[in-house]
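Summary of Year 1 activities. Much of the first year was spent building the evaluation harness for sequence design. The harness presents a backbone, in tokenized form, and records the residue chosen at every position. We chose the following record to illustrate the format because it has been used consistently in internal testing since the harness was completed.
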């Protein structure tokens, strides 16, 4: 139950970033450097990809397949994933939305937080849900 509560809180926080960004963002007096936008967006997407990699690395599918135990025994031993590992993947994924929030505050344009938070929410639902994996997902 605790993993679901933490996952839900970190996923819903993306919506708060959007709401706060919309409420307090004011047009910048000077436009933000395009290189800064590209660097921060690149860092955000890198962190999102890193969170997916860490999640996959935590499952270690090759090591599980190499063991001679039946699939149901492997699932009982390896899952659910340790909560500290899950929290790390969720926090790294959430940093993508934080970069969007920072860009919104710097530029006054809401599309940064909406876009990067949207990508983060989709990733949280598709990749980072706290669930048991099936053995056939390792193929």
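For this record, the design step produced the sequence shown next.
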């Amino acid at each position: 139950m605790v993993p679901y509560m933490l996952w839900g809180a970190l996923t819903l926080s993306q919506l708060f970033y959007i709401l706060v960004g919309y409420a307090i963002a004011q047009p910048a007096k000077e436009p933000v450097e395009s290189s800064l936008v590209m660097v921060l967006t690149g860092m955000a997407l890198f962190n999102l990809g890193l969170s997916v990699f860490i999640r996959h690395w935590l499952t270690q599918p090759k090591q599980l397949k190499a063991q001679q135990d039946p699939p149901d025994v492997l699932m009982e031993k390896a899952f659910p994933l340790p909560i500290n590992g899950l929290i790390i993947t969720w926090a790294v994924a959430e940093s993508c939305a934080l970069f969007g929030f920072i860009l919104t505050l710097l530029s006054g344009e809401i599309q940064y937080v909406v876009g990067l938070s949207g990508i983060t929410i989709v990733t949280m639902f598709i990749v980072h849900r706290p669930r048991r994996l099936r053995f056939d997902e390792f193929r």
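The mean pLDDT is 85. Quantitative recovery figures across the full test set are reported in Table 2.
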